[in-house]
Design brief:
about 475 residues, eight-stranded mixed beta sheet, 16 helices, Heterokaryon incompatibility domain-containing protein, HET
């Protein structure tokens, strides 16, 4: 794949250029993404526009030019020899198939870059510009300000971060060109949140409510730290972009960000720029990779053939907005039939063992701040689990079913005349349970529908695994 870069203009260059950080720079096309050495610039657009940068037609963000200049200045101070930069407003083609292919290839572009340079606004820089390697965490006021930062909350930030080989941070308007290592800043975020949690005796859910943006950002940091040796599942990518700010005027941005997090392969033959086509593209990539974790979403399943497959008319949204571990949901598909592997069948309508009851009770206490004496009866857990899961994105039924290994909630209501077989994944897991799928049959007929389920309970590592066919 070829990309456009910003390079230093030659002395004899007479075309369009911009003077940035005391030097002349120009646009240069047809650079192979895998063999070129360059830096990606990550920043937020904001609402203000500039009429012309590098002679590019159409309005671009007023932050583009100064963010690029800040990135150039930071590499100059660090004595970085590679002086080529990729920045979206200038380097993404303006229209046509090449534009769509570039937007679908963000994972390829960011993962191939030598580094990603994050350009922050001055208010955020003032907080983090002290020595981020010190043992002093951010104050409550500083955490409040960081929780409102536009870059941390941007839908693009997740894919830009998890694909980066190295991250540095700088800011606009710094005459010194100073930067700090991304590792130091990201570690300080986690350390500060952990200290605040302990100082105020807060549960994990209370921290998520207090600092929703920063807490979710900490999960993104975790995905970045393991990116070099662990694949990201589709469900992890969906969780990573869910809830982040996406320009309402550009609803496809969320799906482009998802594709960037999902694959580092360049796009060939880009689809039309609409949500439905991009959802289909994402699911098709997962089919090819053998990862079917995209079924664990809030989307309705299709009505006719492939009843198990989520409807593509809207964004794919994860069944829960909580960090999930694992390489994906292994499976295969042929002739519209999916075979999910590494699944565990649940024994519904059976009582959880005392050990399972104690395990779930302890999790609710740690996660949501309950006291153990509030959860002594199974009915109390059945009452509190739906409310707790709703606080992290669950939108399904409030009816909680028991099983031998825990408790089960379904994304849709089960009718009295329907029979249910529920299976959960043994390959991906939240800290408190696993996603799964239920085959719901209409009485004694052959009519079947598929419903996503959430199982809350201990790890099912000792349970027998099997494959499940979805028609």
């Amino acid at each position: 794949m070829d990309i456009t870069l910003i390079i230093e203009a030659e002395k004899h260059w007479t075309g369009v250029f911009e003077v940035l950080a005391g030097r002349r720079w120009r646009i240069s096309s047809n650079h192979n993404v895998r063999t070129s050495s360059y830096h990606c610039v990550s920043y937020t657009w904001g609402i203000d526009r500039a009429p012309n940068v590098f002679g590019v037609d159409g309005n671009v963000s007023s932050n583009t030019r100064r963010s690029l200049e800040a990135a150039i200045a930071s590499t100059k101070r660090a004595a970085v020899s590679d002086q080529a930069f990729w920045i979206d407003a200038v380097c993404v083609p303006r229209e046509g198939v090449s534009r769509r292919a570039t937007l679908e290839s963000m994972g390829n572009i960011y993962s191939s870059a030598r580094s990603t340079i994050v350009v922050l606004q001055s208010t955020t820089w003032e907080i983090i510009s002290r020595d981020a390697r010190s043992n002093e965490p951010y104050s409550e006021i500083q955490l409040d300000q960081l929780n409102e930062d536009n870059w941390i909350n941007s839908v693009w930030t997740y894919q830009e971060l998890v694909n980066a080989r190295a991250v540095s941070l700088t800011a606009v308007g710094l005459s010194s060109g100073r930067s700090i290592k991304g590792d130091d800043f990201l570690n300080c975020i986690g350390f500060s949140l952990d200290r605040y949690k302990r100082q105020h005796s807060l549960s994990a859910l209370a921290i998520r409510r207090r600092y929703p943006v920063l807490d979710a950002f900490e999960d993104s940091i975790a995905d970045w730290m393991v990116a070099g040796y662990m694949d990201r599942s589709m469900l992890a990518c969906l969780t990573g972009v869910a809830g982040r700010y996406c320009d309402p005027a550009r609803p496809t941005n969320r799906m482009y960000a998802l594709l960037g997090a999902l694959t580092q392969v360049a796009s060939w033959g880009a689809v039309d720029e609409n949500v439905s086509q991009l959802v289909q593209r994402a699911m098709g990539i997962c089919d090819g990779n053998g990862d079917f974790s995209y079924i664990y979403t809030t989307n309705q399943t299709q009505d006719r053939s492939r009843k198990w497959r989520p409807d593509a008319e809207s964004d794919l949204l994860p069944v829960l907005r909580w960090h999930i571990w694992g390489d994906g949901q292994p499976g295969t598909t042929a002739d519209g039939i999916a075979e999910l592997q590494e699944m565990v069948r649940l024994d519904l309508q059976t009582e959880p063992s005392p050990e399972v009851h104690a395990h779930v009770s302890k999790w609710l206490c740690d996660f949501a701040g309950f006291h153990g004496d509030q959860l002594g009866r199974l009915e109390a857990i059945e009452s509190e689990l739906p409310r707790t899961l709703r606080s992290i994105g669950f939108t399904g039924s409030a009816v909680c079913q028991r099983c031998r290994t825990g408790f089960v909630l379904t994304q849709e209501e089960i009718q009295p005349h329907e029979t249910v077989e529920a299976y959960v994944s043994s390959s991906i897991r939240w800290a408190f349970g696993t996603p799964g799928i239920a085959q719901v049959r209409d009485g004694g007929t052959d009519n079947v529908r598929y419903i996503v389920v959430v199982h809350v309970g201990p790890t099912l590592r000792n349970e027998p695994e099997q494959s499940v066919l979805l028609l």
